[in-house]
């Protein structure tokens, strides 16, 4: 994970340098104006935030102005539709990022529901030192709240129909909008996409995005790897449902090696692309959930990724699982629920999760660490030779549980072909054994048997048990494929044999 380390170090250092610079430099800035003057200037300009109604054409938008009713008509704002407001984050280059229009287009292209899409452009306040941009998030939240209150006064409109989607600092902006809005009713939904960590981690709920800010709050954490006590994305849960794809620390496909590809593609810009990769992954997971709406990713309640990797969390009872992204099941929770899932490195990100529980029987005292491959045969398609790496060695009779993820839908699993791979180490061990006891013949009772393979499919919640097809010989031989079928079937073939 060298590359992820550098990526987060780069961002953290730039934030730290800025925090320092901000803290130590109260004297007038280059322009000759003191920060106090700047602050006054910022306050006197009423709404710094520009509300851009997306028209459906790429990058084409129409500006709505607070207290100017005519702009609603001019922009053909349809107040009977639900409203989605996209809120961007801290800006390094003072430009609106490309993903904003990708997300706007995705939201607009939905067949099932029509929505108004507004981009809350606060770039003038976001393109500042990090610490100043952080302070500005409250002002922007206030402005969004005022805008929504005005809409409710001006036209038939309800805040319960509003969905704020905020990325990085924009997630906290959305939280402030939700907490500043006057009246007893809350905004319908807030989604935090890798909400910013520095200066927010560990603060009280009123100082960051929190579940109280809307009727329903969901968050996706994608870049929470910690360096020097800081992480780019916030680690702690901030929502009703908090999603941690691939554990939330770093994301597949975001390695620095890819930087060269990015530089080739985007020129020098490629560096920031790479640095932002894992941070911005939350955004792309969300867009993907709209674009590939037939491939919804399921995430499961779990304590941490280690436990998740053992396959122990694929349960959907009592709201323990949910759908990542736009089409989440909006179920309020008393406490934040941390949900985990594995994703691919590219869209469509969805994978299929399986828990495998293999019951090994071995007579050897010595622990062994065999390597296996599995071919899963399904009603739709097969996966060939999946390598299985057991984290722990096999000793005695034990059941091993682990997670397997597939990027394709094999349908109903009907058969498992299992192979114990011959490894050099094992061959050596055998040779040594043979040297010590030269008369030993290859034992008939092999050292390894599989009693049962139990499988649970997360996505369908189906539980299956597989037994050796050949009940007369349950032993595994190296480099020999062993076929396991659904146990009921296995019993049948066995009975037929006995007749
Ligand atoms: C506004 O949206 C509603 C609901 O989809 C639709 O019935 C109506 O025709 C729209 N109005 C305009 C002016 O487009
Ligand atoms: C809420 O009401 C207070 C008092 O009337 C007002 O000062 C404030 O601006 C209002 N908040 C928003 C977000 O409009
Ligand atoms: C494992 O189970 C087998 C068969 O059920 C039994 O013969 C063997 O003694 C057991 N080994 C250990 C270490 O419990
Ligand atoms: C799995 O094993 C069965 C029985 O040995 C064999 O007929 C089948 O071709 C194998 N399937 C795959 C995909 O390897």
UniProtKB/TrEMBL annotation:
A cellular component term (GO) from this record?
high-density lipoprotein particle
- Family listed: Belongs to the AB hydrolase superfamily. Lipase family.
Q: Any keyword Lipid metabolism?
A: yes
Upper lineage: Eukaryota, Metazoa, Chordata, Craniata, Vertebrata
The enzyme class is: hydrolase
The UniProt subunit note reads as follows: Homodimer.
Alphabetic keyword roster? Calcium, Glycoprotein, HDL, Heparin-binding, Hydrolase, Lipid degradation, Lipid metabolism, Metal-binding, Secreted, Signal
Q: Where does the record locate the signal sequence feature?
A: 1-21
Chief localisation class: secreted
What SUPFAM superfamilies has UniProt attached to this entry?
alpha/beta-Hydrolases (SSF53474), Lipase/lipooxygenase domain (PLAT/LH2 domain) (SSF49723)
Gene Ontology terms describing biological process: cholesterol homeostasis; cholesterol metabolic process; cholesterol transport; fatty acid biosynthetic process; high-density lipoprotein particle remodeling; low-density lipoprotein particle remodeling; triglyceride catabolic process; triglyceride homeostasis
Binding-site positions, Ca(2+): 208, 213
Record's catalysed reaction(s) = 1-hexadecanoyl-sn-glycero-3-phosphocholine + H2O = sn-glycerol 3-phosphocholine + hexadecanoate + H(+); a triacylglycerol + H2O = a diacylglycerol + a fatty acid + H(+); 1,2-di-(9Z-octadecenoyl)-sn-glycerol + H2O = 2-(9Z-octadecenoyl)-glycerol + (9Z)-octadecenoate + H(+); 1,2,3-tri-(9Z-octadecenoyl)-glycerol + H2O = 2,3-di-(9Z)-octadecenoyl-sn-glycerol + (9Z)-octadecenoate + H(+)
Where's the PLAT domain? Answer: 352-486
Under the heading PROSITE patterns, the entry gives:
PLAT (PS50095)
Lineage top rank: taxon:
Eukaryota
Q: By its UniProt entry, which Pfam families does this protein fall under?
A: Lipase (PF00151), PLAT (PF01477)
Q: What does this protein do?
A: Catalyzes the hydrolysis of triglycerides and phospholipids present in circulating plasma lipoproteins, including chylomicrons, intermediate density lipoproteins (IDL), low density lipoproteins (LDL) of large size and high density lipoproteins (HDL), releasing free fatty acids (FFA) and smaller lipoprotein particles. Also exhibits lysophospholipase activity. Can hydrolyze both neutral lipid and phospholipid substrates but shows a greater binding affinity for neutral lipid substrates than phospholipid substrates.
Q: Which organism is it from?
A: Sarcophilus harrisii (Tasmanian devil)
Q: Where does the record place it?
A: Secreted
Q: Which GO terms describe its molecular function?
A: apolipoprotein binding; heparin binding; lipoprotein lipase activity; metal ion binding; phosphatidylcholine lysophospholipase activity; phospholipase A1 activity
Q: What's the protein here called? A: Hepatic triacylglycerol lipase
Give the active-site positions: 168 (nucleophile), 194 (charge relay system), 279 (charge relay system)
What Enzyme Commission number(s) does the record list for this chain? 3.1.1.3, 3.1.1.32, 3.1.1.5
